[in-house]
Amino acid sequence: MNLRPGILSRWLVPAVVVPVILLLVALFAFLGHRVWLDSSAECVRCHGDQQKVTQMGASWSYVSEESMRKESGHPYILCRDCHLGNGRAQDKEVAHRGMLKMLLVSDDGELLARKSHYPYGLSRTGTERIFGFLPKKEVNGEWLFYPVRNILWHDRNPETLNFDPSLAAKTCGKSGCHPEELKQFLRTTMATNRRQRTMKSWQEPYGPHNCGPSFADLPPGDVLRGAGLSFENTAKIAGEMKVLFSPRQAAVKQKLCNVCHTGCLDCHFQPGDGKGVHHFAKKPVAESCAGFGRSTSMCHAGSMQSRRGGTYLGGDYSVPAGMTADTHQQKGLHCTDCHLVGEKGMGDMERKADCRDCHRQVEEAIAGSVHRQLSCAACHIGELGGYQITVWGPGIAAGEKNPFHKYLYYGIQKPPLLMKDRGGIWQPMKVWPNSVGNIKPEVAPTGRFLYRWPKGESEDAYAVLGTVSAGGNDRHLLWLEAEQASHPYGKARDCASCHRGEEQTVISRWEFADDQGAESFSGGYRIVADGRELRIEGLKSDGPVRPQAGFMLEDFAPWLRFAKAWRVPGDFAIRTDQGKYRRELAAFTSVQKRITALDRQRQGEDARQHKKYRALRNRVLHNPSGESDRLTDISPGFSDKKERKGP
Q1: Ramachandran angles phi, psi of 438, nearest 5°
Q2: What is the pTM of this model?
């Protein structure tokens, strides 16, 4: 390149140089100011002064930078990286403007003030783990709760209570933190909430659902892009109703639905239990999957657990409280030990766990046995809790009338009903009656159970029984919901519970304990499934039902008007060759007796040898007529004489 003499000197004149210098100074000043603002100096100065925060009436907010970094496991993190706000401002109001903090949600879906409703540091209190983080105070040995329904962490939109990807992008997903993980998560079913958002109305596209339609949520998509509301479905739902359903009513319902759906912090923020208020964990623990002590209606401790009837943690995390924890939980396994991350990455949890990862020999034995068409859960789940009846009817939401209050009947049904899935495998299914009132169109029965997700995403099914009139609230749409159960695993059910006859009978006992509609009352019913149909029999309350003022029976208990309407045609019988059953039962009884003796003989042996023995014994127990010869591999010198005398 040839430069003619004088070219540079022509440009190096004050009229050019001065503006360029000023522009560079302005640019560097702007960038420098941004760097200067990206600081938490004043956060640390204020909240690290214990005397000052105590004088301000917020002694619980004292925290040192060192403790925060140690608890979080992030050695270089700043307060603003998670909480935003203005870390250079000395004025409290300016500093806290735009700051993210935990959200305290009332029964009406409104946000409550921290100072008046959580006047101490974030910590577990009380005796029930599921309510551990809810604010409460002890008075005369009794824990009294503040009126807080749920606690949400600060990656939620405060207007809609949805997980907010824009907030996550400024915090967890910012450059230098976890941007790739956030990108992966936003494409998962967990983040997009695709299944619930697919439900456009009480009928479309896949029939009525226990959780109701997506009242005012965003439409489903492959990537989560926002946290707002959409009223596209609201108009469709209102068109199906004989009563008013306004956008305001829809928004109220949707906000409370959004509480249950999850974000980054729901899984990875695990404060308390001696680990500090800023503790994060790479691996979610089982309690995180159930809301981590922030009350019911959170994550899997919400409607999903009550629909499927299972529990993993048991105790006060079960519905009703007091159910036995899953055997895997008792042995220290967490959900993510079995439900692995799928191909979409972070948050793409595999719905189906593979028992062969740990129980290969048992799976091989089952594959060659008379039970090869049974899932493991079919035998090893003995009872199901959660919803026993669900009624959607008029009630109060956010202090105003709403046509969609979800009246809840909680209880236990056992033993679980078994139904064949699309692959012909018997699965335990939670079946219970559902209804919604004030439906405008007449809806025809489906005449059978239909799988809700035609591409096989789940084995959940439903059967529409049609619309019926009950006097009040005009037409009621009735359906039976059947959802596949997956927990709690425990001791196998009794053989006779399946093979005493072709007919299956499930006993349900429940209690109505809603805060609206009526005083608490109890009742029950039987699910009878045979070669002709599945039906609900004996649906009744134990005593009189007393509606509260302003409510009528059809609001919360319309089933009293049509207790015999719950039946679906189909073949649900478990057919058994009784001769073959007696032979298999005799083989099992014999093997079980011999193994009981072996268990005594092998107590105290080397741990490695005992593990091999346990694997083989379990293999034999799961196919006694085909695998009993393997007992010779683990019982050298075994004889009937030894068996009778014991070890």
Answers
A1: 65, 35
A2: 0.91
